[in-house]
Amino acid sequence: MTKRITHIIFGLGISMFFIEVSDPIMLVLGVVSSLFGGTVPDWDGKVSHRKVVHNIFALTLTSTVIILAFSTIVFPMHALNIALPYFLSYSSHLLLDILTGGVKLLFPFNKRKYRLTGIKYDEPAINTILQALGILMILVKLEFGLKI
Predict the structure, then answer these.
(1) Per-residue confidence band for 146, with pLDDT thresholds at 50, 70 and 90
(2) What average pLDDT does range 28-48 have in this prediction?
(3) 3-40 exposure pattern, b = at least 16 Cβ within 10 A, e = fewer
(4) Nearest partner of 93 among 120, 119, 59, judged by Cα
(5) Spatial separation of the C-alpha atoms in residues 92 and 89, rounded to whole Å
(6) How many folded domains does the chain comprise?
(7) What share of the chain is helix, strand, coil (3-state, %, to 5)?
(8) Rg of the chain's alpha carbons, rounded to an integer?
(9) In whole angstroms, what is the distance from residue 115 CA to residue 96 CA?
(10) Mean pLDDT of all residues in the chain?
(11) How far apart are CA 85 and CA 14, in angstroms?
(12) Are 71 and 19 in contact (CB under 8 A)?
C-alpha cells in the first residue's frame, strides 16, 4: 500500500508542473489523469507483475488511446492537457520501479529486467523521501504556479 501511495503522490507531483491550475475543470481532469497514470502499471496483477504493463509499449499504447479518445470525443482542445499528466505519472511509476526492483521495460520484445539500484520497493525511508518530494512538488506548483 505504501508503494502505491508513493507512485500516486510522486506521479502527481511531477505532473502538477504541466496541469493548468487556474482552470478548475482542467485541474480536476489533470489530477484524475495523473492518478490514473500512477496506478495503471500495477493493474497487471501478481501473475505477470512488472511485465505486461510495466513497459514502454504499454505506456505508449495507453497514452495514445487516451489522447485520441479525448481529442475526438470529449475535450478536443485539451486532449494533451489530459494525456500529458497521465503519461508523466505512468512514466514516473516505471522509473521508480526501475530504481526499486527492476522492470522488463522492453517486454515483449526483450525480456531483460532493467534495474538501477539494489533498493527494495518496500524500503520505508525511500518511500517517505519520495512521498515528501512529491508533496513538495505539488505545494510548489500550487503556491507559485510554476510551469515548465
Answers:
(1) low
(2) 85
(3) beebbbbbbbbbbbbbbeeeeeebbebbbebbbbbbbb
(4) 59
(5) 5
(6) 1
(7) 70, 0, 30
(8) 15
(9) 10
(10) 85
(11) 8
(12) no
123 vs 11, residue with greater confidence: 11
In which domain, by residue range, is 100 found? 2-144
Distances (CA, A) of 109 to 1, 50, 95, 148: 30, 15, 19, 34
Cα–Cα dist 76/64, whole Å: 14
Whether the pTM exceeds 0.85: the reply is yes
Burial class (CB within 10 angstroms; exposed 0-12, middle 13-18, buried 19+) of 143? exposed
Q: Which three cell numbers stand for residue 24?
A: 478548475
Q: CA 119 to CA 97: how far, in whole Å?
A: 10
Asked if residues 70 and 29 have their Cβ atoms less than 8 Å apart, the reply is: no
Task: Categorize the per-residue pLDDT at 18 as very low, low, confident or very high, splitting at 50, 70 and 90.
Answer: confident
pLDDT in tens, 78-98: 788 889 999 999 999 999 999
